[in-house]
Amino acid sequence: MNRKYTPLIAIALLTAGCHPARDESPSVPSQSLNEGAARAKGAAISGDLMETLKAQLIGALSSNDPAQAVAVCRNVAVPTTDAAAVHERGIHVRRTTMKPRNPANAPDELDRRVLEAFATANPPPADRVEPVDDGGYRYYRPLVIAELCLKCHGDPATFPPALVETLQRLYPQDQATGYALGDFRGVICVEFSPRP
Ligand code: HEC
User: Fold this and answer.
1) How far is CA 137 from CA 41, 60, 86, 132, 188, in A?
2) Which of 17, 58, 91, 148 could form a Cys-Cys staple with 85, CB 3.0–4.6 A?
3) CB of 153 closer than 6 angstroms to any ligand 1 atom
4) Distance between Cα 152 and ligand 1 center (Å)
């Protein structure tokens, strides 16, 4: 069963990434920003993002060309990460890890502390909320390597040459390979700022 990659798939995926389900998550007016609200809202937003990303990755990987799939992931994952909550002022969503593929996703100091705590807890906790100096909060949710992730984050020796070539070209500083099933990969971070 050979399904061919077509630009249409990319367009469909991009469109999906640009129009997240806006009305499904409960909203947190800035005056009611507190740890509990940050946890509830963070869980809803990161859950949505995980579902969207998984669906997009499965769609992208069903194309015949893994290198094209990476192009889709690259174009879709980043705007999706932002778009998931950009419609609400004061909320910013991103992914970070100790071993970034894209250096733009490198952790800051607080990220690093949380990543270390998650990496040493086995299994990692379901989530964690951290207060930030400006009165805001960060909600962190761990991402664990599933079968699907190994296709682009597993052993590069198992990757098709076109995928290796594309990753080297787009991400010359790629550190995000060599993971095994069940490994802790990184986090989704949902940031809530009191001043939009
Ligand atoms: C088709 C290839 C592909 C698959 C499959 C894939 N990823 Fe990625 N992943 C990428 C690319 C490309 C990036 C870089 C995106 C960017 O430029 O921000 C990335 C980035 C990430 C990041 C952001 C941090 C970083 O390293 O830059 C996380 C976290 C991540 N992936 C986790 C996962 C998880 C968990 C899975 C499985 C559910 C998965 N990925 C499956 C290609 C893939």
Assistant:
1) 11, 33, 16, 5, 14
2) 91
3) yes
4) 7
Q: What is the mean pLDDT of the chain?
A: 79
Mean pLDDT of 25-38: 70
Ligand 1 within 6 A of 41 CB? no
Instruction: Indicate the number of domains in the chain.
Output: 1
Tell me how far the alpha carbon of residue 33 lies from the centroid of ligand 1, in angstroms: 30
Residue 147 domain-assigned (yes or no)? yes
Predicted local confidence at residue 32, as pLDDT: 74
Question: Rounded to the nearest whole angstrom, what is the distance from the C-alpha of residue 45 to the centroid of ligand 1?
Answer: 18
pLDDT at 183 over 70: yes
Q: Quick one: 172 exposed, middle or buried, by C-beta within 10 A (0-12, 13-18, 19+)? A: exposed
Measure the CA–CA gap between 77 and 14, rounded to whole angstroms.
Answer: 9
- The reply to whether ligand 1 has any atom less than 6 angstroms from the CB of 187 is no
The parent domain of residue 33 ranges over 7-192
Closest ligand 1 atom, residue 57 Cα? 5
List pLDDT tens digits, range 113-167. Answer: 999 999 999 888 999 999 999 899 999 999 999 998 998 999 999 998 988 998 9
